[in-house]
Amino acid sequence: MNNFSEGLALILDPSIIILLIVGVLIGLLIGALPGLTDPMALGLAIPFTFAMEPIAAILLLLAIHFGAIYGGSITAILINTPGTPAAAAASIDGYPLTLKGQSRKALQMASFGALVGGFISAISLMIFAPILAKFALEFGPQEYFALGIFGLSVVAGVAGKSLIKALIAATLGIFVSTIGADPLFGAERFTFGNYFLYDGIDLVTSLIGLYALSEILNQFYFKKKNNLSNHDINKLKLTGEGLTFSEIRKSFKSIVKGGFIGVIVGALPGTGAPISAFMSYGEAVRSSKKPERFGKGELEGVGAAEAGSVGTESSAMIPLLTLGIPGDVAMAILLGSFMLHGISFGPDLFIKSGDIIYAIYIGIMILLVLVFVFSWFGSGIIAKLVLIPPYFMYPIIIVLIVTGTFTLMNDIFNVWIAILFGIIGFFMIKMEYPVAPLLLGIILGPIIEHNFLLSMSATNGDLLSIITRPLSGSILLIALVSMILTIRAQRSIQKRLSGNISG
Amino acid sequence: MSEENLIRRGKIQISQYIDTIIVILLGAAILLSSPYLINHSGETGNRYASPVLFPKVLAYTLIILGVMHLILKVKKNISNSENQQMGSEEKGEKKSFLIGLCALCVYVILIPIAGFVVATLLSSFYFVYYFGKPKWYQALLFTIISTTVIYYIFGQLLNVPLPNPFFL
Description:
Chain A has 22 helices and 2 strands. By secondary structure, chain A is mostly helical. Chain A has a two-stranded antiparallel sheet. In chain A, helix 7 runs antiparallel to helix 20. Chain A starts with a helix and ends with a helix. The mean pLDDT of chain A is 83. Chain B is an all-alpha fold. Chain B contains 5 helices and 1 strand, in the order αβαααα. The N and C termini of chain B lie far apart (66 Å). About 3% of the residues of chain B have low confidence. At the A-B interface, helix 9, strand 2, helix 10, helix 18 and helix 19 of A face helix 1, strand 1, helix 2, helix 3 and helix 4 of B. Strand 2 of chain A pairs antiparallel with strand 1 of chain B, so a sheet runs across the interface.
C-alpha cells in the first residue's frame, strides 16, 4: 500500500500528466504516418529525456509507444495505408467500412478495442509481474545467460523472410557490444586506440542511426515514396454516425478475447502486436456465426484486431520488468532508456523501487484512457496532420538526429557513429537483412557475455551446466519452442498479408 | 544468350553473394585481429574466461552462418537457374542518395566550424529544397522557426551546450 501511494504521488505531478498528453499525441501522429516508425520516434525522444526524472522519462516513452501502436490504425482505416504493421489487421474490415461511409464508427470501434485490450493487458502485468519477479530471485549466471538467449529468440519474430540473415544480424550486434572495455577485466577491445570508444558504442546512438537515419537515407534513395500529401484530403475526413451501444455489445466478446490473446502473445519474446492483431482477428472470424461478413466491413473485426494489437503492450513489459529481457524492439529501447537513467530491471526493481513499479502501472492506466479519449474524439484532426509535406518533416528529423546524437555524448564523434550505423542500417535493409536483431544483439550482448563468462568461471568451463541446470535448461527449451512457434506464426501472417495485397 | 546478357547475369550472380562474402570475411577479420586489437594489459583472465573468448566465439559463429547462407543461396540459384529473373530489384536514385549523404556530412562538418545555429540554418534550408519545392518565403520561415525552436529546446530547456563557431 505504501508503494502504491508513493507511486500515485509520483504520477499526480502536473508536469507528468502534461508529458503523458504530449507523448500520446506525438505517438498517435508518428503511428499514423507511414515511413515514420515507433522505434524511430522513441530513439529521437530519448535525448529529450536526459534532463527528466527516470519515471517521467519512462512514462513519456511509454506514452509515445502506446500512441503509436494505436495511431497506425487511423490511416489504415481511412486510406488503407497502415502506419504500423499491426494496423494491417484493422484495415481488413476498417477500410471497407470507410468505403461504405462509416469511417467514424470504424475508428471509434478501434479506440474502444484498444482501451479494453490495453486494460486487460495492464491488469495481467500487475498480477503476473510480481510473481515472476519472486521466481527470478533464484536465478544465477547460468539462468541469466539462458534468459539472454531467450531474449535473442525475438530474432525469430523479426526475421522476416530469412532466419539466417536475422541470426547474422544478431551476431553482428553482439560483436558491436564487445567494442570497448570488457565487462570482467576492463581490457580494451577493438577501440583502435580511440579513447572515445573505451565505453563502447552508445546504444541510443546506434538505435537512432539504425532506425531514424537509415529511414532518412532511404528517403534520399527512394524519393517521392510514402508521401501521404499525394492523397486526396477528402479521404481523410470522417464520415457517418458514431458507434452505438448495441454495436459495442455485439463485438465485446471478441474484443475481450483479443485482449487475452494479446496478453499471451505479448509475454512471449519475438511475437508482438502484428501477430497478436491477426490472431485476434482470426479468432473473431472463426467464432462468428456469420464469418462471411468479415472482410467486407465488420466492426467486430476492427475491434478484435485493435484489442489484440494493444493487448500485447503491457504484457510485453512482464519479461522486461522482471527479467530485463525485451520482448520486441520497443521494449529493447525502453530497456536502454531505463539503463540510461540508472534503473536496472529484475527482482531488485520490485524490492527496492516499488514506487516506480506502481507509478508505471498507474501511468499505463492513465495512458490507455488518454489514447482512448484522443483517438475517439481526435482521429479526424490527427488524420489531417499526416498531410505534413515531407520537405518540412524530414529536415526536422535530420536536425533532431544530429542534435540528439550530439547531446548523448556532447561530442561530434558520436554523430559520425550514428551516420555509420545509418549507412549500415540502410544497406542491411537494401540487402533484406532485418535491423531489429542487430539492435537486440547490442542490448543483450553484454548480458549474455557477462553471465557466460561468470558461468564458465564458476563451473571451471563446464558449458553443459547451462543445459543441465533445471531452471536454465527449461528457459533454453522455452526459447527454442518460442522460436519455432513464432516462425510458424510469422509465416502464416506473411501469407495472409500477401493475400490481402493481391486482393 | 547475347554477350551483354551474359555479363549482366554474371554481375547479378556476384552481387547476390556479396553479402555472404562480406560476413565470412568479417568473421575471419575478427578472428585474426582479436589477439592484436584486444589489449590485455597484463590481466589475461583464466582459461575459462578471458576478454578474447567471446569475440572469437562470435567470429566463428559469423563464419559458420556466412558459409551456411552461401550454401543455401548457391543451392537455391542452381535449382532456379532455368527460370532466373534478371534485374527485378527496385531501382533507386543513387545520385540523389550520394548528394543527400554528402549534404548530411557537410552539415556535421560545419557544426564545429560555423556553430550549431548557422550550420543548422544553412542545412535545413538546403534539405527543404532537397525534398520538395516550396515557395522561398515558406522555406525561409520554416528554417528560421525550426532552428530557433530546436536551439531553445536543447540549448535552453535541456541545458545542452551546443557548439559555437570555432572563433568564439
